[in-house]
Amino acid sequence: MKKPIKFNKNKYPQMIIRQIDYDLIDEKYINSCAEYYQNIGWNNFNPVMHILCDQKTGNRSKYIIPLDKQYRSDIINTFNDVSFIPAYSDKNLYDVLVKTDRQPRFYLKCINGRFFNGENKPVAADQIQNCLKPGISYIIKPSRTANGLAIKVCYRDYDKIIVENTPCTAKDLFNIFSPNFLIQEKISQYKLINDMHPDSVNTLRVFTLRWDGQIRYLSSVLRIGANGKIFDNASSGGVCVGINDDGKLNKYGITFNAELWYKHPTTSFDFRNEIRIPNFDKFKDYTCNLHEDIPHHDLVSWDIAVGEDGLPFFLEHNFKGSLSEFQLSMNAPFFKNLSPEIIDYIINYKKSGKLFKKIAGIQPPLKQRVKNMIKHLLGRPLYIE
Fold this sequence. Notes:
CATH superfamily of the largest domain: ATP-grasp fold, B domain
CATH class of the largest domain: Alpha Beta
Shape: globular
Structural class: alpha+beta
Number of domains: 3
Order of helices and strands: HHHHHHEEEEEEEHEHEEEEEHEEHHHH
Strand content: 15-25%
Distance between the termini: 57 Å
Largest sheet: 8 strands, antiparallel
């Protein structure tokens, strides 16, 4: 047995480390990747992602992003105004900030403990049930969290809102979801996507980048729920399937723990069949167009459902988070053919000291940035497919 290449195992969960076959590690390849990152100044190279991409999918490239740490600390901080992320991230503002009619309809919002209906009009706490129609299921979730945290199904029963078979008052909802949450319509999805795991809305995670004066589509993966859960996050047991630029799915899925599946672990849906996302070019155009309304952030990931009509349906946008499971399922470096120039740009940006200044908060005053954002948004028309 080969002597294992040294790397910091604490940077990855043990379940991921166990997926590595030490006998199959190509030391020449790994050492060449380590030399590349050392030469460009990206220190403390950890080869786990390069090893897994090689062994699981056959993807070999020195341009694979080594750690989520590099993605969060260097890449995100280079392209996005991290201090301004909360201004865009509150889901209760999506109907104002995200200019598309293809998104879930709001029925109730709770913002800082105050209630509003779908038209953003105030509602008394003892009247919130009147915002919902009897006999219809809705989605209720916190508005300032990510990764599917606390997403549940609810419905109205006379003068009560029922969450997981439990009648809830306004105070009860505060205790479950915090004073910032929302209730929105439960959408229906494209039949093929629904068949993969009917209990969850299975979404495309689409990455777009503002680069060289234009919004560019980078890559996509299909996120599929598992184990009967309502959300599709890989960190909650879901599966990620890479999508090629023509909309064709890879023939395998990857879990958060780097397990490879040719069939869905819960439904046995076979990924080896010829599967394509319908109208995939429209998904690219849709997300690139929406990105134009986000001037503060150059790198955005989008959670987009495939509507019953096979067209894109906005759910959420994200400006940080993890990359590992997505990069592993993509079977390609994150920045693809743009990798050399983008990584070079990130390294030079970091060396120039601009990254430090950005993190330190040396930016235009918040008041002026808010004014600039509102001015930009008011000048943009509604995007309707």
